[in-house]
Write a structure and sequence with these properties.
With 591 residues, the protein is of the alpha+beta class. The protein has an eight-stranded antiparallel beta barrel with strand order 21-22-23-24-26-27-28-29. It has a six-stranded antiparallel barrel with strand order 1-2-3-6-5-4. α2 packs antiparallel against α3, α6 runs antiparallel to α7 and α9 runs antiparallel to α10. The termini are far apart. About 4% of the residues have low confidence. Pfam families: Trypsin_2 (PF13365). Keywords: Signal.
């Protein structure tokens, strides 16, 4: 009987603790300003017209925002704040919160202004001016050891709606370093097995602490904020530790002007480092370094820069960027808010302007904040390449206590476009398109390699003969080189020259093409081509050469496939010398 009473008491005690935890954890939803919503509309419209309907849909859906989790803390100024992940609050000016108690009653808190962000640490904090928030959480003073029990609290989605969950797990690595996500000098992760699902982002990772002084004495302390999950590994989840969160709060929320200037110096140092010259011979390592630098630059591209100037850069990058950069831009668009893709396209524009593999841009002057002051609250930072006598200008602005690039330009101080100027430029472009003005330019087709399959029809003495060919070509701006394999009906030769007339023959040989790639109104590439090739044809053993000309058609917005039509002549040099004339139609897969 005594054991039953103890069990019941323990069960009721646990319910009380759980209820208190619910009061300190909330659902978080972003609130976007009108400029963000309007940009997403404009982006969806323009990108859809450019032929990328699947990407346009991402912008349409992004207007509804996402939901995640967050938890309440009390600042050193005695005010209440809510902490969450940056990727939950990205591009939001304020947050809407929802608290649900154990009985299902909900408290909704609107318009909590975002105070500070750190994109690399995936942290965001907003001020909560609502007296209905009665409970908050404290941070633990020490890091838990491997094997310690931990709890994840938050609102993962079920059927698209948030549902409360408090899950238990253990610390599997108290100091996991993931250099591809966060610079190990800035922070590590707590790796744990407490359950994390979509919607848990921004929720606390907890340890039991009966001495916790949180409102309601909830019995838990925060050791981290849940941020990431390993997709291909079960029960492998990651949290930013409490020490990094406290440094973020002290530096970004309560740091004052001195801390703000120090944060700007750190941002400029990191940007300059990302633009610094480097030499790596091995392609795989070189590509890793390029992407690392590109992501760093993208992190410092502001949302205003993206809104005012990013859409043209984005569309151009989708059409023309090399495969490595294009894949990164698409990944940024799909895996988070699609505005991330716009910012990555601008980062690509900055990167290709500086070309750190070739050039040596360094800060023009020492990073003295007073000397860098531009106008108002903006700062101008200039990189200089001594060998090229070239300057790259950037203008930096404080966005939620996070310094970012608002404008940039090569060899000239950048002009930040106002929304009015942007609108007038958009109208001018539209009027120019409507007048039917011609836009034809010689422009390299962005995809370098292609594999083609073609049908060939040749006029022979016996009539029209059909054949097929496969080929591989590597493209430069004006030249394509590769090889082709031919499957065709052999020529009819004198019986004495061969014991039995074969029905099918094949040939292989090199191929060279000259082309003039023309971009027609950013809709299609038309590439007039002249080609020559040759090789060996068996059976019977014959030498042949083929040559001709035609045109290759590549849709600008879908460069993975192209179509070609051409006239050709095939000449043979053994036995009976003759030339057959015909046509060839091809389809290419571009890689």
């Amino acid at each position: 009987m005594k054991n039953k009473i103890v069990s019941i008491f323990f069960f009721l005690f646990c319910l009380t603790i759980f209820a208190d935890i619910r009061d300190a954890v909330c659902v978080v939803r972003p609130n976007y300003e009108e400029k963000i919503l309007q940009f997403m509309d404009d982006a969806a419209d323009e990108i859809s017209k450019a032929g990328y309907s699947d990407i346009a849909e991402l912008f349409e859906k992004a207007k509804d925002g996402v939901f995640g989790s967050g938890f309440f803390i009390r600042g050193q100024n005695k005010k209440i704040y809510v902490l969450t992940n940056y990727h939950v609050a990205a591009y939001a000016s304020s947050l809407s919160l929802e608290i649900e108690n154990i009985d299902g009653a909900k408290i909704k808190i609107e318009n909590c202004p975002v105070v500070a962000i750190d994109e690399e640490l995936d942290l965001a904090i907003a001020e909560v001016e609502d007296k209905r928030v009665k409970s908050f959480l404290d941070f633990a003073d020490k890091l838990p050891s491997d094997g310690a029990d931990v709890w994840s609290a938050g609102y993962p989605g079920l059927g698209g709606k948030p549902l409360w969950q408090l899950g238990k797990g253990t610390v599997t690595n108290s100091k996991a370093r993931l250099s591809n996500i966060v610079d190990p000098k800035k922070s590590f992760f707590i790796q744990h097995s407490a359950p994390i699902d979509s919607g848990n982002s921004g929720g606390p990772l907890l340890v039991k602490s009966p001495n916790s002084s949180g409102g309601g004495h909830n019995g838990y302390e925060v050791i981290g904020i849940n941020s990431a999950k390993a997709v291909f590994r079960q029960s492998t989840n990651f949290a930013i530790p409490a020490t990094s969160i406290k440094n973020f709060i002290n530096g970004r929320v309560f740091g004052g002007s001195e801390k703000s200037e120090n944060n700007l110096k750190l941002a400029l140092d990191e940007f300059a480092e990302a633009c610094k010259n480097f030499k790596i011979d091995k392609e795989e390592q070189k590509n890793e370094e390029i992407l690392k630098r590109l992501r760093k630059i993208a992190m410092y591209v502001s949302e205003d820069y993206a809104i005012n100037e990013g859409l043209d850069a984005y569309k151009a990058a989708l059409r023309k960027a090399p495969r490595l950069f294009r894949a990164e831009i698409l990944a940024a668009s799909v895996l988070g808010n699609p505005i991330n893709g716009i910012r990555t396209a601008l980062a690509y524009q900055i990167y290709t302007s500086i070309k750190p593999e070739e050039n040596s841009y360094m800060p023009e002057k020492s990073i003295d904040i007073t000397a860098l002051k531009n106008t108002g609250t903006n700062y101008e930072f200039v990189l200089y390449d001594e060998a090229e006598k070239s300057k790259f200008f950037t203008v930096w602005k404080n966005n939620h206590n996070f310094w970012q690039i608002e404008a940039s330009n090569l060899n000239g101080s950048p002009e930040k476009k106002s929304s009015e100027k942007k609108s007038s430029e958009k109208t001018a472009k539209k009027q120019k398109r409507n007048t039917g003005a011609s836009f034809i330019s010689i422009e390299e087709i962005p995809v370098k390699m292609r594999i083609y399959a073609s049908y060939t029809g040749l006029k022979k003495d016996t009539g029209w003969a059909s054949g097929f060919s496969l080929g591989y070509l590597y493209s430069f701006k004006y030249v394509e080189i590769g090889f082709s394999a031919v499957i065709d009906k052999p020529r009819t030769l004198p019986k004495a020259s061969f014991m039995k007339q074969p029905k099918i023959g094949s040939g292989i040989g090199p191929e060279l093409r000259l082309q003039l790639p023309l971009n027609i109104k950013d809709v299609v590439y038309l590439a007039p081509q002249a080609f020559v090739g040759g090789g060996v044809f068996v059976p019977p053993f014959e030498l042949f050469v083929q040559y001709g000309g035609g045109i290759e058609v590549v849709p600008v917005n879908f460069t993975s496939i192209s179509f070609g039509i051409e006239c050709l002549a095939r000449s043979y040099f053994k036995e009976i010398k003759e030339t057959n004339i015909g046509i060839r139609a091809s389809i290419s897969l571009r890689l």
